[in-house]
Amino acid sequence: MSKFVIIGITDMPHPNLNREAIQHIAGARFFSGGIRHKELIQDYLPEDAEWINITVPLTDVFDQYKQIDDTIVVIASGDPLFYGIGNTIKREFPDAELLVFPAHNSLQLLAHRYQLEYGKMHIATLTGRDWPELDLPLIRGEQMIGVLTDRQKTPKTIAQYLLDYGFDNYDCYLGEKLGGPNQKCQKLSIAELLEVDFVHPNCMILVQKEPIVRQFGISDEAFQTLEGRPKMMTKSLIRLASLSSLQLDSASLLWDVGYCTGSVSIEAKQAFPKLKVIAFEKRSESDAIIRNNMKTFHVPGIDIHNGDFFEQDIEALPAPDRIFIGGHGGKLSEMMAKLHALLKPNGCIVFNAVSDETIATFKESAHELGMKLEKPSRIQLDDFNPIEILKATKIM
Question: All domains of the chain, ordered by start, with CATH?
Answer without folding.
Answer: 3-103 (3.40.1010.10), 107-208 (3.30.950.10), 220-393 (3.40.50.150)
